[in-house]
Amino acid sequence: MSAGAGATHPKVAMLGAGRMGQAILAGLLRGGWPVERITAAEAHAPTADAVRDRLGISVVATIDAAVAGADLVVVAVKPHDVTAALEAASPALAPGATVVSIAAGLSTATLAAHLPAGTPVVRVMPNTPALVGEGMAALSPAPGCPPASVALAARVLEAVGQVREVPERLQDAVTAVSGSGPAYVFAVAEAMIDGGVLLGLPRPLAHDLTVQTLVGAATMLRDSGEHPAVLREQVTSPGGTTAAALHALDRAAMRAAFAEAMTACRDRSVELGAT
Question: Which end of the chain has the smaller Cβ count within 10 Å, N or C?
Fold first, then answer.
């Protein structure tokens, strides 16, 4: 059966059952995807056993066994293992099966070079909040990829959060914003907690104050529709405490530091794609 050919739940094969692979698998199950329509390939036996026990899906040791009959194959191995995974999958791919890669830096052209000619290919940059159903994934179809394949890839990714389609030339920038973005937020949270401790707060209290503040602020930003600058101004009284804090951040060149960090992230993504 080709991708999007009318089945209510096309068969999905996950190559690699690490954290991101497991997040997508769990999201599919939460969304009502039948267990029998999902297979994972995981060579590490303890991980395979854990996934099998926790999710109840079929977990096999070899890639060819996982992809046989699959409508969508998600490649969730480390970037340096992707080529080998694609070459192992190729002989067993069903005609018309869509291949989705979540490996950083690898272009659709690189992926297609290791697959049978004409295989629909979609490149995706997800992020770790997929683990709690709040992921952000950007997908880029290869030239000529059928709309049905793009729709199927989006449907699977929507099981763990939001999805946006972007031109592939923007994928390295996406990596710098949302792919690696959760780490920036965690670093900010860590700094705020440590700052609270420095000011005399017990660490558990500093933790709770920081976490809920971040959750609340992110929810306001998402749900209000307001520009971040407007929301920031609403908290900032002239000559007040917040104004003093923001002035200190400006002196520390916070915006420049973020821009430099994200540029470094983008450049590293480009390097990964060139290796």
Answer: C
For residue 44, tell me if it sits in a domain. Answer: yes
| Angle, vertex CA 163, rays to CA 157 and CA 166, nearest 5 | 120
Please indicate, yes or no, whether the overall pTM of this predicted structure exceeds 0.70. yes
Bridge-based pairing of strands 135-141 and 121-125 is antiparallel
- pLDDT tens, residue by residue, 138-161: 999 999 999 999 999 999 999 999
Domain limits for position 251? 181-274
- Give CA separation, 67 vs 63, 73, 84, 121, in Å: 6, 7, 14, 15
Nearest Cα to 154, choosing from 167, 142, 138, 178?
138
Which residue carries 């094969």 as its tokens? 13
Residues 19 and 126 in one domain: yes
Q: How many domains, the chain?
A: 2
Q: Which two tokens stand for residue 142?
A: 């290869």
